[in-house]
Amino acid sequence: MLKPYLHEHLVEAGCDEAGRGCLAGPVFAAAVILPKDFTHPLLNDSKQLSEKQRFAARQVVEQAALAWAVARVNPEEIDKINILNASFLAMHRAIDQLNPAPESLLIDGNRFNPYRDFPFHCIIKGDAKLLSIAAASILAKTYRDDYMMQLDAEYPYYQWHRNKGYPTRAHREAIQVHGPSPHHRKSFRLLK
Q1: What total number of domains does the chain contain?
Q2: Alpha-carbon Rg of the chain, whole angstroms?
Q3: Helix (H, G, I), strand (E, B) or coil at 134
């Protein structure tokens, strides 16, 4: 069972990212504020759900959340500031869009760049522990998957409809044959 909150009396936003380990495409992040009494059997770490379940859970989150937002950092920015900082920047951009503003941030993982004066808590495997982080993981993942499906229509040989930009053998072989696209992260090792 995922916990509904860390601090009962604070407005908490769960934050998570998707696409950090990809060779291509933006890194996406989401921030979600859920009601304190929210529960739903479908809500879990996005990695534990099938694609169909994730998209169903996304609808649940978007309807139930007090506030939610999704943001991204593009490959050019990733190449300039590195993927870790880009992940934090994507979270900052998502947090910026929340209305009401949170009083505390729950961050999936063990590191975060502080943002404004929001207190924050880093929670390792937070997407498997807290509902709001699980909700953020679902939004970040599904919005990124949607985006990569759009790019796949332009660049079908990379098979982004299957690998979503992650470093699969087929993806690397396509880079070898066709070279990198404008959506590839130049600072990443694209070929072994």
Answers
A1: 1
A2: 17
A3: helix
Q: Which domain holds residue 122?
A: 12-178
CA–CA separation, 17 vs 27, rounded Å?
7
| 192 assigned to some structural domain | no
Whether 131 and 3 have beta carbons less than 8 Å apart is answered as yes
Residue 183 in any domain: the answer is no
With respect to residue 185, please indicate whether it lies within any of the assigned structural domains: no
CA angle 15, 19, 20 (to 5 degrees): 85
**Pairwise CA distance, residues 134 & 148, whole Å:** 21
pLDDT tens across 134-190, in order?
999 999 999 999 999 999 999 999 999 999 999 999 999 999 999 999 999 999 988
Taking Cα atoms as reference points, which of 88, 86, 73 lies closest to residue 25? 73
CATH number of the domain where residue 86 is located: 3.30.420.10
Residue 167 · residue 20 · CB < 8 Å:
no
Task: Tell me the whole-structure pTM to 2 decimals.
Answer: 0.95
Amino acid (one-letter) located at 97: Q
122 vs 106: CA distance, rounded Å: 6
Residue 152 in domain:
yes
